[in-house]
Amino acid sequence: MYIETVKKTMNLPEKVRIFDTTLRDGEQTPGVAITVDEKIRIAKKLDKLGVDTIEVGFPVSSPGERKAAREILKLDLNSSICGLARPLKKDLDAAIDCGVDYIHTFIGTSPLHREYKLKMSKEEILNKAVEGVEYIKDHGITAEFSAEDATRTEFDYLKEIYTAVEDAGADCINVPDTVGVMIPTSMNYLISELKQEINIPISVHCHDDFGLAVANSLAAVEAGAQQVHATINGLGERAGNASLEELVMALTTRYNIKTNIQTELLVDMSEFVSRITGIKMPPNKAIVGENAFAHEAGIHVHGVLQKAETYEPITPEMVGHTRRIVLGKHTGANAIRAKLDEYGIELNEEQFERVFNQVKSLGDKGKCITDADLKAMAQTVLGKAKKEIVKLEGFSVMTGDNVLPTATVKLNIGGETKTAAKTGVGPVDAAINAIQSLVSESADIELKEYHIEAITGGTNALAEVFVIMGDKKGNKATGRSTVDDVVMASVEAVLDSINKILVER
């Protein structure tokens, strides 16, 4: 509602081109090195994703960069294939020799770059920029020019150099916020001012040093920028670049601006690049993170189950994601019932209450309950003995180095409380021995089989214990328990099995 009102004040383009620099700037992420074969695989997926231009690297920098460019060009992709080059003949020739159809050339223009990096005058830099663009155009190649550190460059000089490269034949000018110092309002102002002077498309390349790369890129689009540079997962130098998936979805759904991106492939693309680079995305990463469409709080889950739009601005299917109901201490009964319905598990009210209370208890301990955990808990409750003749009133174990494992168990058997302490080869064995000694007066029941399994990974995984107990008359029964303590799970499973035998006798 509010967006539609303010959009009337914007200079929005009908369509925005997506210039992907994952293979160039993204590879500059500390600790990331992408092989030629991996670059080829990423390029194929970027092309399928629908990016307009793929910046494949900096050809002059190494033979590997040149090989990657040549191999990608052999794929005959729909995306334009771009090489980065300084406005130096050796750089430009390296890119041209690779056969690229697009060259992105750049030179520093800010006072800092002029004085400390380049040690060149304004005039020298302007001449270099013009010569570089002219050289590219003389070879019939699309030319994009970047004034490196543009956002810390005097506006009059910035205007002068951009006007000069436009006159030299540049097809596009790019405005890099090289160290991410802009805020959206200032980026909007800068692009608006440049639009009054420049007649060719304007692009932006925003870094995320203050977490504003996406916001600054969108502010540029609001002022009329027709292209944005981005990387998958926001990879790049230091804090990275504008995140392609965030940019695209904001453009598509907030601004209703067209791109060529197949948005349903975004999650797959993100996960693919994450695997290759080894840079794992935070679970709360917008659009593609594991938790992007995960809900735990009871009120939120209830709302989403009734109508997804209550707590989801877009559907997970739009980006190739899936909705996930997370069970924990904030989970309401509706969420648990919805999950159980999804699994086809029917519980009566008493059984449901047991599962619900266990979820809450585990959540209070800081555990998130997985689908597998919930299924196991529900199946355990469903399989419980119909009557508890033997009830656990308490137990303790003592174990450790040079200590004989000992368990003390207190049971209520038919209304009478009994206690026993026994040793064993371990705490579980000791606890089972104590239980058997107490129950032996009522029935001679012994352990036949014992199985334990961690349902999910991690040190706080739920333990699922399955046992078979039997008596001398040949009666047997299974017992199962699913809790976060191995000894407790074992005790509960054994007692469940014993109760089933006693009930059936």
Please characterize this protein's 3D structure.
The chain is α/β, with parallel strands linked by helices and about 500 residues long. The protein folds into 3 domains: about 1-275, TIM Barrel; about 295-380, Orthogonal Bundle (Recoverin, domain 1), CATH 1.10.238; about 390-505, Double Stranded RNA Binding Domain (2-Layer Sandwich), CATH 3.30.160.270. It has helices spanning about 1-5, 35-50, 65-75, 90-100, 110-120, 120-140, 155-165, 185-195, 215-220, 245-255, 265-275, 300-305, 335-345, 350-365, 370-380, 425-440, 485-505, and strands spanning about 15-20, 55, 80-85, 100-110, 140-150, 170-175, 200-205, 225-230, 295, 325, 390-400, 405-415, 415-425, 445-455, 465-470, 475-485. The strands form 4 sheets. An 8-stranded parallel β-barrel has the order 1-2-3-4-5-6-7-8, surrounded by 9 helices. A 3-stranded antiparallel sheet has the order 11-12-13. Strands 14-15-16 form a 3-stranded antiparallel sheet. It is elongated. The protein starts with a helix and ends with a helix.
Give me the number of helical elements: 17
CATH topology of the largest domain: TIM Barrel
Q: Total domains, how many? A: 3
The amount of helix comes to: 40-55%
Radius of gyration: 33 Å
Instruction: Tally the beta strands.
Output: 16
Overall pLDDT score: 90
- The CATH H-level superfamily of the largest domain is Aldolase class I
Task: Give the strand line-up of the largest sheet.
Answer: 1-2-3-4-5-6-7-8
CATH architecture of the largest domain: Alpha-Beta Barrel
Structural class: alpha/beta
Task: Report how far apart the termini are.
Answer: 70 Å
- In what range is the share of β-strand residues? 15-25%
